Amino acid sequence: MVEVEFRNLPVPIVPRTADEAQHQARMVDAGFWPKLHRLATRLPFAEDLLAAWYASRDPKTPRKVKIGLTAALAYFILPIDTVPDWIAGLGYGDDFAVLLAAIRLAADAIKDSHRASAREKLDRLRQD
């Protein structure tokens, strides 16, 4: 089992209660794909983002890891964050930093199969 400490993420996004975690997961479910569809061809970290998505939805991924990855994905879809996304060249830098921190903390839980699924999906998105 992977034991991960997500309180060390660079921003306070990790839910404190089960209700907060469920709310955050619903928010990510509703907002992740529309935002990714808009940005898939422009985000240099789109593959990592998708791999985190697949790992966070894998039943074999430990609950704590799912919560941390979902928190990082929630930060990506939030319209308000440390550096607003509309700032050219900088807007997604903070999103990437949060995602990278979560991925490093959850590295053992993000499997090759998650990365392969991410590459396949990204290829399809970029062809549309």
Q: Could you explain how this protein is built, in words?
A:
The chain is mainly α and 128 residues long. Helices cover 61% and strands 0% of the residues. The chain contains 5 helices and no strands. It has helices spanning 18-39, 46-57, 63-77, 93-105, 112-127. Helix 1 packs across helix 3 (63-77), helix 2 packs across helix 3 and helix 3 runs antiparallel to helix 4. The N and C termini lie far apart (38 Å).
Summary?
By secondary structure, the protein is mainly α.
Question: Which descriptors would you attach to this protein?
Answer:
single chain; 61% helix; globular; disordered N terminus
The Cα radius of gyration reads 14 Å
Strand percentage lies at under 5%
What low-confidence regions span 5 or more consecutive residues with pLDDT below 50?
1-12
How many distinct helices? 5
In N-to-C order, the SSE pattern is HHHHH
Share of helical residues: 55-70%
What can be said about the biggest beta sheet? Answer: none
Name the average pLDDT: 78
Report the span from N to C terminus.
38 Å
Identify the overall geometry.
globular
Structural class comes to mainly alpha
**Strand segment count:** 0
